[in-house]
Amino acid sequence: MTDHRILVIGDSYMTAEIFTRAFAQRGLAVDATTMTITTPTWDTSSIREYEGDPAEVASLGRGYDVIAFHAAPVTADVLAALPDLRLVGCARGGPVNVDLDAARERGVRVTTTPGKNADAVADLTIGFLISLVRNVPASLRDVDERVADGRPLAESTFEGARWFGREVKGLRLGLIGYGNVARLVAARARALGATITAYDPFVDPASVTDATIVSDLDALLSASDVVSVHARATDENRHMIGAAQIARMPEGSFLINTARESLVDEHALLEALRSGHLAGVALDVNEPDGPWRELVAEPNLILTPHLAGATNETLVRGADMLAAEVESFLTDGSLRWER
Fold first, then answer.
1. Cβ proximity of 83 and 63 under 8 Å
2. Rounded to two decimals, what is the model's pTM?
3. Residues recognised as catalytic
4. Does residue 66 lie in a domain region?
């Protein structure tokens, strides 16, 4: 390895200490810091989902040729202020907080950590699936109401008659997108006895042996008891699941979204829940301008605050993946997950 200076920048989600431990395990010495300024003073229109001020990143990164981080805002102005920078390592699957075009223009290479949270998201998806088909959300609300009213909870088999559900064995699970997360969801669901169908126009059906790949989204929707969304969000697929798509799902089916909020029209979801067309919905993400106040009032809804990937293992895995990339870059210039 040639001489190099590495800076790791921590944030409220992924601390500098997590990065430091991963790099130390590979014999890489780093300087570590944490952003302190929360309100941006420089333009951030070219990036999103960041934390901190680009001006502070530019100040902290001066003189370093490698910078590793999770949420730091890396804009064109930041890159222009750091002429020594050779590599940017972003511990995310999609580096939305990095201006990739500006990095390419300046010859700064960018690498990421795709799939670092795949196991965590797959676990939560299966948890959602079981909870929905067993009527857990509505039954929990009933318990809360009883406790609030001072009514006892009867220890009787007959109480369960109000909450008959379904077993996973025999369920038809439809996956929209068949990437890292969806394949892990498929493996878990198959082990529980579900049958798996997936729709992904970017996957060659001949390359998949563990699921039935269909070429038509409507075909997947109409033949699934549970639909789980795992597509990568783009400008083109906003609200790819709307009223028309939900109408093609069987009466009494379920929908899960642990991907991105923009993929599902939540107004259409609300109407489908109210009409009973959908028997249950689980969302780990929700649209800021969606009808979330009305949604949370629905007894058959699960709504969590984007916690699918929030596990300790995800953080450790992401830091280790990034440390491996930096080690490889400094050894021979190669990168496995370059963007």
1. no
2. 0.92
3. 260, 287, 306
4. yes
